[in-house]
Specification:
Layout (H helix, E strand, L loop, with lengths): L15 H21 L7 H6 L19 E7 L14 E11 L5 E9 L44 H17 L8 H6 L5 E2 L23 E7 L33 E6 L9 E4 L1
Antiparallel strand pairs: 1-2, 2-3, 4-5, 5-6, 6-7
The structure holds zinc ion (2 copies).
């Protein structure tokens, strides 16, 4: 539960049911447009069901403990090289689905490492928050992890290496008749989308030090929630298995104006608190 109450930044509150219904309506309209080739439009009935753009549930609904929502459940066996505390085979990521000014106006993230054999009586019903911010309510989906090699954000590479990469990119531009070039930043170093491990893309603010509040150790990237799986990259990260009409954002989560939420952990101890950065 999150008990931040009035300390939340409140903009527009909706019930999870309202959010889910709106997504259903949009998906149905999308499917009709795809099937008929007609323009995407809502029927009058669908439009009537949607709340006005400025509608919000009463703000005082946040003055009660808010159940956190499940964001990701990952077994270490499914993710190569997934480092966790000794004996723990499962990571559960939850967040409070409201904006927290003291977390950079992001959801408050909590990590739970578990031994799955200790969970003998799982809850049958997921506790639902009374209200959420639409952007922070994930649409459930299954993940099919794909292992890739990432390379450090360009701005954090040694200067000489950065210069060599720029020269290599410029060479490709000269040789390539399609004019697509090649981009270390967009296509080769950092995968967009939800991921475990790898590196953060600091293109919004430039790199910020992420040091553990407990012990000062430089933290490493543990987990990323993103607003899109292949945004801004010319589609080179798009899984070939995905249907052409597949949504680039199957979770329906949006971080800020289409950014990613990076969750860092302290390499010195899993007991030290995680930290987040939006980029
Ligand atoms: Zn909260
Ligand atoms: Zn630490």
């Amino acid at each position: 539960m999150c008990s931040d109450g009035d300390a939340h930044y409140i903009f527009r509150l909706e019930t999870p049911a309202t959010v889910r219904r709106r997504r259903e309506i949009y998906a149905a309209a999308q499917a009709r447009a795809a099937a008929t080739g007609d323009r995407y439009r809502l029927t009058d009935e669908e439009r009537a069901e949607l709340p006005d753009a400025d509608f919000s549930e009463p703000h005082d609904l946040v003055n009660q403990p808010i159940p956190m929502v499940p964001v990701a459940q990952l077994y270490r066996r499914d993710v190569s090289d997934f480092v966790g505390p000794d004996g723990a085979d499962l990571l559960q990521v939850l967040w409070c689905p409201l904006d927290h000014p003291d977390e950079g106006y992001n959801p408050r993230v909590r990590l739970y490492w578990r031994r799955s054999s200790d969970v003998t009586q799982p809850l049958r019903t997921v506790p639902e928050p009374p209200v959420v911010s639409d952007a922070y309510l994930p649409t459930p989906c299954v993940v099919h992890p794909e292992r890739i090699r990432e390379y450090q954000y360009g701005g954090l590479l040694p200067e000489e290496l950065g210069t060599q990469i720029t020269a290599w990119e410029d060479d490709a531009d000269d040789d390539d008749e399609t004019g697509d070039g090649r981009s270390y930043q967009l296509d080769l170093s950092l995968a967009p989308g939800w991921k475990v491990g790898g590196f953060a893309n600091w293109s919004l603010t430039d790199p910020q030090p992420m040091d553990c509040v407990e012990c000062g150790t430089a933290m490493t990237l543990l987990f990323t929630a993103d607003s899109s799986e292949w945004h801004g990259t010319g589609g080179s990260w798009r899984p070939v298995q995905d249907q052409t009409e597949a949504s680039p954002n199957p979770t329906d989560v949006t971080i800020g104006r289409g950014y990613a939420l990076y969750v860092f952990r302290c390499p010195a101890s899993f007991d030290h608190p995680p930290a987040t950065a939006m980029q």
